[in-house]
From TrEMBL:
Species for this entry: Rhodococcus sovatensis
Disordered: region residues: 28-96
Stored Pfam families: DUF732 (PF05305)
Taxonomic path: Bacteria, Bacillati, Actinomycetota, Actinomycetes, Mycobacteriales
Entry superkingdom: Bacteria
Keywords noted in UniProt: Signal
Extent of the signal sequence: 1-18
Keyword hit for Metal-binding: no
Protein name as it appears in the record: DUF732 domain-containing protein
Domain DUF732: 99-179
InterPro entries tied to this protein: DUF732
Composition bias type Pro residues, residue spans: 76-86
Biased composition (Low complexity): 28-75
């Protein structure tokens, strides 16, 4: 018993000490300070050198100062305009079933954002989830969240109760239009 207590205390002290060392080693400063220094060494093949050759060797061993290359001084690249029609249409066309779904929502007082892409993707989810046997309460929760996103995208404020009611309208409209194959 005494050995395991001593072992546990030793490990705790070592952990705290190691953590303290790691914290002490780091800092928030990630910038380099100072300038790099270069060391120049020259070697001669002959054992004896004259003062003239030593002076000549030290004069040629220092590196010449260079200017930055073209890439470092080039002006910033200007963005090019996107070609017309790139990468294709920005909105997917709504098919007849999708339009029937949107009409059903409108008839029930639900306003969709934009061209109805969010609403149609929500309806597609409803059909897919029901065909895969996802429980109705999970579908309702997901649809309620999407109705909130739809309302936010259209600039409408909606309470949680209103979103739940609208979710039921979505589910019913999807079952009556898109889920019928």
């Amino acid at each position: 018993m005494r050995t395991s207590l001593a072992r546990t205390l030793s490990l705790a002290v070592l952990s705290v000490a190691a953590g303290g060392l790691l914290v002490a080693c780091g800092s928030d400063d990630s910038t380099a300070t100072g300038s790099p220094s270069t060391t120049s060494t020259t070697t001669t093949a002959a054992a004896t050198t004259t003062a003239e050759s030593t002076t000549e060797a030290s004069a040629t061993s220092s590196a010449p100062t260079t200017s930055p290359g073209d890439a470092a001084t080039a002006p910033p690249e200007q963005p090019q305009p996107v070609p017309e029609g790139f990468p294709g249409p920005t909105e997917a066309p709504v098919d007849d079933r999708g339009q029937a779904f949107l009409d059903e929502l409108e008839k029930n007082g639900v306003t969709v954002a934009g061209n109805g892409e969010i609403a149609i993707s929500t309806a597609t989810y409803i059909c897919s989830a029901q065909s895969q046997g996802v429980p109705a309460d999970e579908i309702s929760t997901f649809v309620t969240a999407n109705v909130g996103v739809e309302a936010s995208a259209s600039g409408t404020q909606m309470s949680a109760e209103q979103a739940g009611e609208a979710a039921q309208i979505y589910i019913t409209a999807a079952q009556n239009t898109l889920c019928k194959a």
